[in-house]
Amino acid sequence: MQTRDHVLLPAVLLGLVGVTALALWLTTDSTDGFVLREPGMDDRPAPPDPADAPPLVRTTTRGDGVPGRAMGSWPGFRGPNLDGVHPDPGALADAWPAEGPRKLWTVDLGEGYAGAAVRNGRVYVFDYDQEAGADALRCLSFDDGEEIWRFSYPQKVKRNHGMSRTVPAVTDRFVVGLGPKCHVSCLDAETGEERWMIDLVREYGATVPQWYAGQCPLIDGDRVILAPAGPEVLMLAVDLESGEVLWKTPNPSGFKMTHASIAPVTIGGTKMYVYCGSRGVSAVHAGTGALLFQTNAWKIGIATVPTPVPVPGGRVFFSGGYNAGSVMMRIKPVDGGGFEPEVLFRLPPDVFGATQQTPILHKGYLYGIRPDGQLVCLDLEGEIRWASGVKVTFGLGPFLVADDLIYALDDNGHLSLVRAVPDRFELLATARILKGPDAWGPLAIASGRLIARDLRKMVCLEVSSP
């Protein structure tokens, strides 16, 4: 008969052997002598290098359209002063007939949310030709929507909540567009002939954002400002005339491109460009491209869409969706010539946030559409002055301000006219101008005409006084 000790002894010895073997395994490099498998070493081809891709074949084709007679201007994203307000849109009506403003023309578009720019009787829109499989920067007549010219190049873009979604920037001589996969085209504004092109992915390592590029090019004087946010270059300035790169800003924190656009801001006499990247906010010296500061006091984990809003007193207002809410920062000059951002207040999304459209500062108050779809007026201390209420909501739709009037479009193509005053929500008129869905493209207004779009169609309306 075995005793209990006779049974336990072999088990103890076996355990000691196991512990010794485990210690030897953990302290020995089990990969010693192994060769890492690299592309091409196992007879499979290496993945293609984007730098080796053949250049795109670009063409400009002429249409039958001619420039319109109306000379009003909305020259890019957020209008003449980059603030969403038109200072001189013409005399505007504050009431409409039951059927809404008169439609001057409509144009079919590829799926997307790209808004229009207007200058010198021409309407510019970045489009996607789904049948041809090509990006297309189109120039239309402001009078009747007929196509004057089209610049295009082949590009495979799959349906993903729309395709094109940026607004071109235009001067008297040049128009600049940014395509869904970050191709930047500079063209002659009258003829559509190419001046230069930059592929931000191929040349700067930009990562195309989820749902494609939403950054609108910023023309500032004789240059265009872009934020590729690649491994080495956060931002760059390009000469409009030649395409020469004037300066580059390093990207030490590894920010990546978002859907937000760049905002010019002047603080303490220093002009800078403020940009919301994937990991926070950056400010870049407008003259030299030097990085002035970066902060992670404002960032959004899923998608950063609204552009920063400059506010008097050295402040900048940031807002977003996906439960981000909003924040007001003051950018303070510090000894030695630097700058330091300071958070003044934060607001939860149920007070104020902005999923898709950038808020507008008008006469000392912020107007915006928060995540629950309500149009809201906010004072600069973060207090709500009014909200449109749950019965008058706008979804993710766009809006602009002109002649102390707010033009706001909801998801399904209903246009509302609201008085832009801080003491009350005053709805003046409403009408359905598009069938929808997804009427999200930024609005444009000039010469008493409003341009709006939904997923597949653009319309021009007469909104001037009789």
Give a short overview.
The protein has 466 residues and is mostly beta strands.
Describe it for me?
Helices cover 6% and strands 39% of the residues. By secondary structure, the chain is mostly beta strands. It has one domain (54-462): Methylamine Dehydrogenase, Chain H (7 Propeller). The strands form eight sheets. The chain has a five-stranded antiparallel sheet, with no helix packed on it. Strand 4 and strand 5 (122-129) form a beta hairpin. The protein starts with a helix and ends with a strand.
Radius of gyration, in Å, reads: 27 Å
Taking pLDDT < 50 over at least 5 consecutive residues as the criterion, the unreliable ranges are 1-48
Number of domains: 1
How many strand segments? 34
List the strand order in the largest sheet.
Answer: 1-7-6-5-4
Distance between the termini: 115 Å
Percent range for β-strand residues: 35-45%
The helicity comes to under 10%
- Please tell me the overall pLDDT: 89
Structural class: mainly beta
Shape: globular
Helical run tally? 2
CATH class: Mainly Beta
Give me the CATH superfamily. YVTN repeat-like/Quinoprotein amine dehydrogenase
CATH architecture: 7 Propeller
